[in-house]
Amino acid sequence: MVNFEGNINGHVVIPGTHTAAGGTTTFNIGYPPAQASKPREPFTTVPFAADPDFVDRPDILAWVRDKCAGPGARAALVGLGGVGKSQLALQYAHSIRDASPHTFVFWVHASTRARFEEAYQDIAERLQLPGRSDPKANVLRLVSGWLRGETNGRWVMVLDNVDDVETFHPSWKRPRGEADPDAQTPLASYLPQSRNGAMLVTSRSKDAAARLVGGRNRIKEVLAMDESEGLQLLRNKLSDLPLEESAVELLQALNRIPLAITQAAAYINRRARMTVAGYLAEFQKSSKKQESLLRRDADELRRDKSASNSVVTTWQMSFEQIQHERRSAAELLSLMSFFNPQGIPESTLRRYSKGAAGLTDEEDEEEADSAFDEDLDVLQAYSLVSVTADNNACEMHALVQFCTRVWLSSFSNAEQWQHRFIALMAQELPSGEYENWAKSWYLWKQGSYTSAQQLAAKGLSIREKVLGLNNQQTLDSVEVLASVLGDQGKYDEAETLHRQALEGCKKELGERHPDTLTSASNLALVLRHQGKYAEAETLNRQALEGRKKELRERHPDTLTSMDNLAGVLQAQGKYKEAETLHRQALEGYKKELGEQHPDTLTSVSNLAQVLWCQGKYEEAETLNRQALEGRKKELGERHPNTLTSVSNLAQVLRCQGKYDEAETLSRRALEGYEKELGERHPYTLTSMDNLALVLRHQGKYGEAEMLNRQALEGRRKELGEQHPDMLTSVSNLASVLRAQGKYAEAETLHRQALEGYEKKLGERHPHTLTSVSNLALMLQDQGKYTEAETLNRQALEGREKELGERHPDTLTSVYCLLKSYFKQSS
């Protein structure tokens, strides 16, 4: 008789005897609960110390304690990655250890089979389970056996990051003849339901968690922090830095996601001069900057080494898991990332899914609805989407949408899904109202401003409601409405909207994106119309440099920036630089778009204007006639741009003394503007003033004065007292009064105009010098020769320097000064 004790092929051999009968040896082998080689003091394998910055969420922890209190209890915390599930589980684990030192507390990383096996191997070593070192031993079974043993003491296990249902409940079947069947055993079978133990699971997937804990009634969804919790976490993470008023706004931007808050705090702490307000400004600067900040590690020491410390990477793992698990659900998520995050119509999504599956209303209704419901269930299971109480709409965190779009961009699919979204909206909204943007843009370009404004406002309202305020499609609608308002002379409203669009583009696209540069250019244009030349010039230069770099020198948008910059320089009297830029732009337009393109004709008109300002009347007349003929042909007789060409040509003819033709054209322009734009539009008021100038030169003072007064009142109301165009009307009225011998009122108005020009445009601006000359003539007529001579010298000196010795205005100043000498000597 021989006694055996030990292991054979990893199995426990029960001590006993063997007999040899007919050459056969018999052993008694069994699988009793594994026992440690000697009793062990309870210990913990929790890998992290308690977090001193932890913010208590008492309702959640109370729920965990309640659910894990009973024998064999199981419970799960589910939610978005980075929402704080593991931190809550960590706090619970430490609280159990502190309250009950005789309880074993095990922490098992469960994101993959390898991590699970690694954790069980560590537990086996700590328990010193017999057989654990045998290369052929099934350590998972040894630990599972120990967990079943009710004499081994109380234990609690945290299964962290159970995100993939396949890890614990694989859908595959083991191939026949598998050499190592233990390696293919579902991990769930190694999680015994012992009366001695309790298990807490953390997971992003409700489905994976429910399979392990026995149903969704044992699941607690962890949502984003409330405002007070978020502020407390930010306060804890920022050490000694005081919280600013912008802290609440930052929390809103981060959707109060704990990991995102921790990331922000880490970034602020690493930079000595960074503040909460500074981080918020950086975060809101552009989508590119936002992505960069959200990709930075959070310096979080209490997250598993396999878990990213960045929100973008953390959530993209979920997106990829969904794509692997159910592709149609990932596609639904992709589409939803372009909606306004609140109130995404479920009916719209359902119809889209049906269409994507190639089903008609009559075909397989039940099957299509079932497939959609399954897709939505998957997204809800991962806490990426929620459904409103009435089941009519879905909601998402804006940050989740942003990270989804970043994920799509990583494999160049973002634009494709954006186009699908736009197409869907075009189908869904009544009568194609979503296409109001295109219709309003067309009407605007046709000069039908009233209709364009109505459609643009309606389209903007719809887009803002469906897409949200900062969506790129909404910003496009803002731009169109602003431009329509600007072309109607509603400059203050237009400025507000253009600034809104520019800030939105900077935030969503970055400062160098072509759409952002377009927005800057549009704002500059309306600022020029308001007489805010300095800011307009700065923006135009930025837009021009940006477009040269991002597009190319000859791109039509670059040429537009060149023309716009020239326009604002012209308004400031910087005629030479303006002419150079206008000629460059015109040459580019001709090559890129052709001579008859509306933008080319606008450039022709612009060059003609700066030549007129320099007294180069013959070339200006030729170009104005060319622009007028082209615009008649391309845009029609009544288009506002055509009427502008009529008015511009009339002014050049006036300066050449061709008063009859100038009057005819001026009346035609005024009549057209009144009909197309209304009597109060700035273009109409300018045309009124221009006709009055022609009439004054013809000696028709009564009608000229009447028109000048109408223009003055209109501009005062529409533009304000200090607008350069308003000052021009003051000066024009003063001149017609002087011509009628009404010197007292004329002098008062001339001095008012001069003071305004000096303040608004500066002493050397051509308009200011014209005003100086006009006042000198006024004083000369009244016999105030000394002051008149001083002013004439001032005007002459300025004009020689700014306009050149041969400019007609300079020659006028020479004549006026000589006349002043003659008057004083006679």
Short account of what is shown:
Residues 76-238 form the NB-ARC domain. The protein is mostly helical and 826 residues long.
Verbal overview:
With 826 residues, the protein is mainly alpha-helical. The chain has 36 helices and eleven strands. The N and C termini lie far apart (155 Å). The strands form three sheets. It has a five-stranded parallel sheet with strand order 5-6-7-4-8, sandwiched between helices. A three-stranded antiparallel sheet has the order 1-2-3, with no helix packed on it. The longest helix is centred in the middle third of the chain and has 19 residues, at 449-467. Helices cover 62% and strands 6% of the residues. Among the domains are: 1-30, no CATH class; 58-171 and 184-221, Rossmann fold; 227-295; 326-428, Arc Repressor Mutant, subunit A (Orthogonal Bundle), CATH 1.10.10; 720-825, Tetratricopeptide repeat domain (Serine Threonine Protein Phosphatase 5, Tetratricopeptide repeat, Alpha Horseshoe).
